[in-house]
């Protein structure tokens, strides 16, 4: 049995270098031309990376089988209500959200947002149909989802084509949050009282206006803008 002359670790007879300190191992009784097989592989193996299409297939199988299984349970075992439609609709919505990103990444983001909005509208329509409540769907869900979809599409367009400044993006987000809250408030109030009126969202709109004006002031004054960037590391 040999030992390393540098660190003293015990060595296998077939080793040519110390596995701990890489010191060459010298065997005076062996011929220099003789090469022995090392006790471990000399090359590292490689594993093929998972493709996005493989993940997409896995998601389709997973959520497809979930939807089919719940549908069969609802059809043959738990027949009290159409509860499986909630699960089936949720699986479809998740697939609509995730599959385009994995399979076709070149699809415009704005178009993807519009498709996602339509998927949410479809799911809520399914819920409204099961519960016999299409009135709230038409007067609340449709306007709110359409407004949210448009606002997200506008935000993506502003970020990609107008400005990528964090301050400007923050201002757009604050304004869109105020508009979205006002849209929810107006839709619900009209559904209940058949007239348009701002209630709780008025406070959100005022706060958003104050923040937006402050951000505009910071962006217009270069010294304030640079100070904010320095302190926030942006």
From TrEMBL:
Coiled coil: none annotated. The chain crosses the membrane at residues 55-77, 83-103, 110-130, 136-159, 166-192, 198-222. The keyword Membrane applies. InterPro entries: DUF6320 (IPR046283), MFS_trans_sf (IPR036259). Keywords: Membrane, Transmembrane, Transmembrane helix. SUPFAM superfamilies: MFS general substrate transporter. This is Zinc ribbon protein.
């Amino acid at each position: 049995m040999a030992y390393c002359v540098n660190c003293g670790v015990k060595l296998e007879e077939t080793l040519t270098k110390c596995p701990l300190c890489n010191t060459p191992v010298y065997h005076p009784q062996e011929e220099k031309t003789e090469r022995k097989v090392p006790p471990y592989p000399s090359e590292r193996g490689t594993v093929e990376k998972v493709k996005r299409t493989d993940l997409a297939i896995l998601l389709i199988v997973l959520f497809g089988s979930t939807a089919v299984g719940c549908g069969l349970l609802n059809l043959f075992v738990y027949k009290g209500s159409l509860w499986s439609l909630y699960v089936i609709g949720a699986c479809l919505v998740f697939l609509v959200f995730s599959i385009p990103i994995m399979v076709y990444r070149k699809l415009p983001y704005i178009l993807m947002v519009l498709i996602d909005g339509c998927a949410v509208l479809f799911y809520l329509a399914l819920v409204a149909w099961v519960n016999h409540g299409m009135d709230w769907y038409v007067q609340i869900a449709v306007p709110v989802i359409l407004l949210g979809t448009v606002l997200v599409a506008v935000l993506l367009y502003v970020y990609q084509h107008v400005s990528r400044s964090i301050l400007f993006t923050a201002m757009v987000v604050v304004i869109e949050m105020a508009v979205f809250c006002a849209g929810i408030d107006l839709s619900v109030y009209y559904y209940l009282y058949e007239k348009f009126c701002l209630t709780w969202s008025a406070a959100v709109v005022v706060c958003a206006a104050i923040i937006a004006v402050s951000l505009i002031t910071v962006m217009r004054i270069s010294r304030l803008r640079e100070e904010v960037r320095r302190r926030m590391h942006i």
